[in-house]
Specification:
Helix content: 10-25%
Radius of gyration: 19 Å
Protein name: WRKY domain-containing protein
Strand content: 15-25%
Subcellular location: Nucleus
Number of strands: 10
GO cellular component, one term: nucleus
Keywords: DNA-binding, Nucleus, Transcription, Transcription regulation
Shape: globular
Order of helices and strands: HHEEEEEEHEEEE
Organism: Brassica carinata (Ethiopian mustard)
Largest sheet: 8 strands, mixed
DNA sequence: ATTATTTGACCAAA
DNA sequence: TTTGGTCAAATAAT
């Protein structure tokens, strides 16, 4: 199985999910652009993201959200802590403080920051307790005008998804690839479970290394993909029975230029 | 009743 | 001592 196949399938499933919802909306003549636009975004973004995985078995850095402007994404490693675990850290700017990233979070603190007129909010993974997931994030408004901008900083990797997935696979106890399939009825699904991706515009993406900086130029039709296997593409736990089985994806026929 | 958020207290690092 | 991050009791929401 090529690297990223799971995420590709997840992205395709999200696209399918949004396509269903879009179909339902259109059938009921609820042609409200506010309702439809996010669905179009999700469909397009999901397929684009999945295709980007097919286009490279070596995943690239972070993706951007359609909720956010194509602001630079900063990915950096925390300084080493004398042999202690190094936590990866990513920052992401968005005009929407409740930007959907596909994960479930629990707020555990809020603090006035000296250098800012806005408070900083602290969140940890909703599964931090039962699955010992150490992932956290901080959200803070960093700009008021001309438009508000919120910076979300993610600290640490999610391990909750991996464990849940393995657990479910064990339950099934056969060799098939299993993909969770949340969508049974096509009623509204919380936006939080629909990570949204968008093409990054001509902006440069800055990646700060520990001792050097690297700048990547992106064309308007290119997509940047996070290299963290779990980053931003977790589907939260679903009701039992909503599964889809696929044959071993290693047999998938990959023709990048014939898609 | 259970789960999530708020908010002052506490703590460690600078 | 100041500051930012986390804890945990109180409160709110479901």
């Amino acid at each position: 199985m090529f690297y990223g196949a799971d995420r590709a399938v997840d992205a395709l499933l999200r696209g399918q999910e949004s396509a269903y919802r879009l179909k339902t909306v259109l059938e009921h003549q609820r042609t409200n652009s506010v309702t439809i636009e996010p669905l179009f975004d999700t469909v397009l973004d999901s397929f684009s993201f999945a295709l980007s995985l097919f286009a490279s078995s070596n995943p690239q850095p972070h993706c951007e959200s359609s909720q956010s402007k194509a602001t630079p994404v900063v990915a950096r490693k925390s300084p080493k802590n004398h042999g202690e675990e190094v936590l990866e850290q990513y920052s992401h700017d968005s005009p929407n403080p409740h930007h959907s990233d596909g994960f479930s979070w629990r707020k555990y603190g809020q603090k006035k920051i000296k250098t800012s007129s806005h408070q900083r909010c602290y969140y940890r993974c909703a599964y931090s307790k039962d699955r010992s997931c150490k992932a956290r994030k901080r959200v803070q408004q960093i700009q008021d005008s001309p438009s508000s901008v919120y910076r979300t900083t993610y600290i640490g990797k999610h391990i909750c998804e991996v464990n849940a997935f393995l657990q479910l696979n064990d339950d099934i106890n056969n060799g098939s690839k299993m993909i969770r399939f949340d969508k049974i009825d096509h009623q509204a699904m919380p936006d939080s479970v629909i990570p949204q991706l968008v093409p990054v515009e001509q902006d440069a993406i800055l990646i700060e290394g520990t001792d050097q900086n690297m700048t990547l130029e992106c064309g308007s039709n290119e997509f940047l993909v996070d290299d963290d296997q779990l980053w931003g593409y977790q589907i939260p736990p679903c009701s039992p029975g909503n599964f889809m089985f696929l044959d071993d994806l290693s047999e998938f026929d990959y023709h990048p230029f014939h898609l």
